[in-house]
Design goal:
single chain, alpha+beta, PH-domain like, 2 domains, 5-stranded antiparallel sheet, 3-stranded antiparallel sheet, 5 helices, 8 strands, elongated, disordered N terminus
Length: 214
């Protein structure tokens, strides 16, 4: 857009403390350099990370995996099996906890790297996959004509105020933003941005039509 983005209206209900309330998952008008490949007049409005609850399952898995060697030792004792040698136990334990460390670190990196950047022109989706491969896609805001959001799904999700946003463009294709904190408020911000873009486009077209030809 050639004109700067207007400040978000209070109707978004995000508030200036949204970053603190969401543990940094939502950044409103971030000042740090998040994405290099922006257009000259493009401004970042929101930076969205996945909800922190996405780390709950990996954390539980890591705890269960950490307790597994103890469970094996107890099972050996109860069943009366003979223990492996000390060097074998040390090597096996070392490899096992290295695996747990890699699993935990990879889940954290993937969570931190899966972000949505909403500018005054488009939505940029960074999708980190296995082995830290990254796929980047973007969708122009002026091509979106429908916005839906879903919250809850279960008691835990509902109490955490997380959900997903479904965007449909003019071709009928869908863009789904999963595990977003405060999906209702984020959807409202998107609606405000899209409405602003369409209003500016309408004014530009009207002005162009009023200029007499020479």
């Amino acid at each position: 857009m050639n004109s700067p983005t207007a400040p978000l209206t209070p109707s978004s209900e995000l508030g200036k403390d949204i970053e603190k309330r969401t543990f940094g998952a939502i950044k409103l008008h971030p000042t740090d350099k998040i994405y290099e490949n922006l257009e000259k007049d493009e401004e970042i409005v929101l930076c969205l990370e996945r909800h922190w609850s996405q780390l709950l399952r990996p954390a539980i898995n890591a705890l269960v995996m950490s307790a597994l060697p103890i469970i094996i030792i107890i099972a050996y004792t109860i069943l009366g099996f003979s223990y492996p040698t000390i060097p074998q136990i040390m090597v096996a334990t070392w490899f096992w906890y290295c695996l747990i460390f890699y699993y935990s670190l990879s889940r954290i990196i993937e969570w931190r790297s899966d972000v949505y950047i909403i500018t005054d022109e488009r939505i940029i989706d960074f999708d980190t996959r296995a082995f830290f491969s990254e796929k980047v896609t973007d969708t122009d805001l002026d091509s979106i004509h429908e916005i839906h959001y879903e919250t809850g799904g279960n008691l835990l999700s509902g109490s955490m105020n997380k959900g997903k946003i479904i965007l449909k463009d003019v071709s009928g294709s869908e863009v789904i933003m999963n595990n977003i904190p405060h999906p209702a408020d984020v959807a409202l911000v998107l609606g405000e941005l899209i409405e602003k873009i369409k209003d500016e486009a309408l004014k530009t077209n009207t002005t162009s039509a009023e200029v007499p030809s020479v």
